[in-house]
Amino acid sequence: MAKREDGKVTRNRLLKAACEVFAERGYLNAKVAEICRRAGANVAAVNYYFGDKDTLYAEAWQYAFNEYAMPESLVPEHTSPEDQLRNYIHSLIQNFMEKGLQGYFTRLYLMELANPTGLIQNSWHDMIKPRRQKLIGIIQKTLGIETTDETVLFCELSIISQCRALLTINRNDLEYLLCQPLSRNLIKRLADHIACFSLAGIRAVSKLRSEKEEIL
Amino acid sequence: MAKREDGKVTRNRLLKAACEVFAERGYLNAKVAEICRRAGANVAAVNYYFGDKDTLYAEAWQYAFNEYAMPESLVPEHTSPEDQLRNYIHSLIQNFMEKGLQGYFTRLYLMELANPTGLIQNSWHDMIKPRRQKLIGIIQKTLGIETTDETVLFCELSIISQCRALLTINRNDLEYLLCQPLSRNLIKRLADHIACFSLAGIRAVSKLRSEKEEIL
Amino acid sequence: MAKREDGKVTRNRLLKAACEVFAERGYLNAKVAEICRRAGANVAAVNYYFGDKDTLYAEAWQYAFNEYAMPESLVPEHTSPEDQLRNYIHSLIQNFMEKGLQGYFTRLYLMELANPTGLIQNSWHDMIKPRRQKLIGIIQKTLGIETTDETVLFCELSIISQCRALLTINRNDLEYLLCQPLSRNLIKRLADHIACFSLAGIRAVSKLRSEKEEIL
Amino acid sequence: MAKREDGKVTRNRLLKAACEVFAERGYLNAKVAEICRRAGANVAAVNYYFGDKDTLYAEAWQYAFNEYAMPESLVPEHTSPEDQLRNYIHSLIQNFMEKGLQGYFTRLYLMELANPTGLIQNSWHDMIKPRRQKLIGIIQKTLGIETTDETVLFCELSIISQCRALLTINRNDLEYLLCQPLSRNLIKRLADHIACFSLAGIRAVSKLRSEKEEIL
DNA sequence: AATGAATGAGCCTTCATTCAT
DNA sequence: GATGAATGAAGGCTCATTCAT
Predict the structure, then answer these.
(1) Per-residue pLDDT tens for C97-143?
(2) Helices (H), chain A
(3) What are the distances in angstroms from CA B180 to CA B30, B176, B185, C27, C60?
(4) Got the DSSP string for chain D?
(5) What's the sign of the alpha-carbon dihedral B49, B53, B54, B59?
(6) CATH code of the domain occupying A81-215
(7) Does B162 sit within 8 Å of A156, measured CB to CB?
């Protein structure tokens, strides 16, 4: 019985190590040998437990999502939509920028976006869905509508894009662009900026939308 | 059988093939052998003309930038800042979305962002600089200031991020997010959205900035 | 078909084959593939066990030194310095000339001298040290001194040079120079000659040295 | 007519460059590309003028011998055999140790000894012969005999070996062995040592020889 | 006569995977 | 159930050589 336990333990250590290495290096640069080494397991362990590298990758994705992904209840309910948006953006950006276990999922996500391996297409949308709902809800409240039309989706895209860009860019380039070193405070100011910028944006396109509708 | 071409001819064929393959597969997945094959040259051709894969990569970047990148004079002068911003965003996005096979530069750019090879750091900033100047100028005019303080750079980042995101995402995912197929018209509407959204954003943070200054 | 040997077995076969090939062909001409072939192993075996060709080379050196080098106790104690010197030279030369295929170490040594790879500099002096001590001791006794001044080192160099030269020269050239085929007896006479020649040499420079000292 | 001249000029520049590079790096490490570069000629020049690398090597040997080898009349006649031997050794060692054009031949010679390419076996002995005669003559005079028996050849070997060893060893190792940095003065003292050491050696084996003959 | 473009054979190394134990 | 030994396919690079001009 102890042995069966050991099996699961090793398997989990492999998954954790896989998240680390895939997140740090991307799929191609990640070496199964290193994953095994970090997991304290044999070189053959990956093939033994998962069959091959591809399968390990897909399972690591799931694992990362379950273990590290942004907590569901990251946005306090019962506050104004404006505050909710600000909160959402802040928590998203902090999640991006801070090193640590919670960053794995976002990194994997990013890596996959830029270099699609085609190995996780099945689970991709399902994993993303709950997060989207939250943001879309906030946008709808801000706009004062309940439908999910093009305008809402465009706003979602604008907000997500601004947040995601901070991770897409490597630290050096970001510091070069902003002409100052990254600090906790800078990140906070950036989040404030994005919230303010986006809130105004939402409202502006809201007007545009109303005008269009009136015409129709 | 056309041997002994001008030398430059083969070299250019290699560069073109390199752009294709690097853009399609990324640096690691790109095989020197395939580049040579596509260029109709011998496996040793890359070494002969460029020394090694790294150098070829850097030169392909330059080549892609020169051949395919957005034309310098993309924004008509003598219009209102609002129109200039709209124009800038439209041309940027169209460049991203419509070039089809010829969007090599943007693809290379993206790949490098996600998986920095560190091989083009020297030329990187130089290639980007003129484009930035243009956008920063527009933002300054919109804000009615001439300095390049944090607020300006934040706005630049917000705008660029929204545009770039459209390429970060692969076509299928984008269509999934927006719940409709990509069309010329959709792209136009998206550009309009980003312009409107951002213009309002700039103005909003402008106010914030003025308020801050008054306090100081 | 004897797969899954102890691991050490294959490793040792590789080391032995490496000694052979490096000794026969020198570092550059030695091909990893041939070493593996001779060891009955896969091309990747060298990488598996040693990481790369350089490390294999360094380890082969150690192996050759341990396996084939001249036995420590080559000189009987408690005899006159003259006899000891004669013994030392005889055993050194015999070691050089007679070991046939097993003279790996001396061959490697020579190859390295002529084409320094810089890969064994660390172990080099350590491996040589004990042998030197023995000879230096004999020379000191012959000179009747205990210090290790320049004169002693010059004598060491003279003696070692004469012995080593017999290996520096290939067999054909040596036979050409001496106008007779190499035989056990010729080697013996050569060793006698070097011993006699050197003994007289040591004594001569000894006198020179005493005279110098008197002047000072 | 000027063109035919150019051909010979280039050919000679190639030979000179080949001597340099072969002497510096040995046959295997020498790259034809570098030889051509140093000669200011095309990559294909070696093959054009000499057919292949091997032939160039052989011709470079001849060239080095003719151009750089020790001058015939290096030993003043009409002095005592002792002085002649001292002179011979001094000039030989200086020839070895000093960098410069004259060192090429000796270096090529050495390289070939340690890593026989088998490409110059034909000319080898012929090129060496005149130098040997000079030394053998001196030894014979010192021994007071005219025959070239084994004893004479052994002495020749002993002397040459000591001199050659100074080049066989790389500078660092030599300084390590002698516990002091190489200086012009040290080289002079070494040459003195070898002369003194060898003179005594010759005389000692001379006695041995006489005794042997008496027995016979 | 001489050159620069182009080639191909071969080498070292990497790495996911397999297999006997 | 799990491991360490062993493999093979493939990649980047070197370099002497060839060939059309």
Answers:
(1) 665 545 677 677 767 766 678 888 777 777 778 888 999 999 999 99
(2) 2-29, 32-38, 45-50, 53-68, 81-97, 103-114, 121-143, 150-168, 171-178, 184-215
(3) 33, 7, 11, 65, 67
(4) -HHHHHHHHHHHHHHHHHHHHHHHHHHHH--HHHHHHHTT--TTHHHHHHSSHHHHHHHHHHHHHHHHSPPTT-S-SSS-HHHHHHHHHHHHHHHHHS-STTHHHHHHHHHHHHS--SSSHHHHHHHHHHHHHHHHHHHHHHHT-----HHHHHHHHHHHHHHHHHHHS-HHHHHHHHTS---HHHHHHHHHHHHHHHHHHHHHHHHHHHHHHHH-
(5) positive
(6) 1.10.357.10
(7) no
Report angle CA A207, A213, A215 to the nearest 5 degrees.
110
Angle at B65 between CA B59 and CA B67, to 5 degrees: 100
Residue nearest to nucleotide F11 (CA to C1'): B31
Calculate the angstrom distance between C1' of E15 and CA of A33.
Answer: 8
Give the per-residue pLDDT at D138.
94
CATH architecture of residue range(s) C2-65: Orthogonal Bundle (1.10)
Q: What confidence score (pLDDT) does residue D81 get?
A: 87
Q: How far apart are CA A126 and CA A145, in angstroms?
A: 25
Structure tokens at B202: 């700039």
* pTM exceeds 0.90, yes or no: no
Please give the Cα distance from D208 to D202 (Å, whole number): 10
C-beta neighbour count of D6 within 10 angstroms: 10
pLDDT over 70, % of chain A: 84
Q: C53: which 2 tokens?
A: 């060709």
Q: Mean pLDDT, to the nearest integer, of B48-55?
A: 94
Distance from C-alpha of A108 to C-alpha of A22, rounded to nearest angstrom: 7
| pLDDT above 80 for D112 | no
Q: Give every CB contact of residue C33 below 8 A, 6+ residues apart in sequence.
A: C43
Q: Which residues of B touch A148 (CB under 8 A)?
A: 179
The amino acid at A56: L
Question: What mean pLDDT do residues B16-34 have?
Answer: 90
Nearest CB among C113, C153, C189 relative to D169 is that of C113
Higher pLDDT, A139 or D72: A139
Q: Give the residue with greater pLDDT, D62 vs C94.
A: D62
Burial classification of residue D17, based on how many CB atoms lie within 10 Å of its CB (0-12 exposed, 13-18 middle, 19 or more buried):
buried
Q: CA nearest D191: which of D127, D81, D97? A: D97
Q: How confident is the model at residue A14 (pLDDT cuts 50, 70, 90)?
A: very high
**CA nearest neighbour of D194 among D91, D60, D40:** D91
The spacing between the Cα labelled CA in A14 and the C1' in F1, in angstroms, equals 16
Delimit the domains of chain A by residue range: 2-65, 81-215
With 0-12 CB in 10 A as exposed, 13-18 as middle and 19+ as buried, what is C141?
middle
The answer to whether the beta carbons of residues D155 and D163 sit under 8 Å apart is no
C-beta separation of C127 from C65 below 8 A: yes
Contacts of A114 in chain B (CB under 8 A): 110-111, 113-115, 168
Whole-number pLDDT of residue B2: 40
- Buried residues in A24-35 as b, exposed as e (16+ CB within 10 A): eebbbebebebb
Instruction: For chain A, state the CA radius of gyration.
Output: 20
Q: What is the mean pLDDT of chain C?
A: 84
Residue nearest to nucleotide E11 (CA to C1'): C31
All residues of chain D having their beta carbon less than 8 Å from the beta carbon of residue C153 are 177-179
Q: Which of B124, B154, B178 sits opposite A153 (nearest CB)?
A: B178
> Which contiguous run of DSSP H or E holds residue B19?
helix B8-29
Residue D76's pLDDT band, with cuts at 50, 70 and 90, is: low
Q: Is the pLDDT of residue B32 over 90?
A: yes
For residue D46 the two structure tokens come to: 């070696």
- Tell me how close the Cα of C47 comes to any Cα of chain D, in angstroms: 24
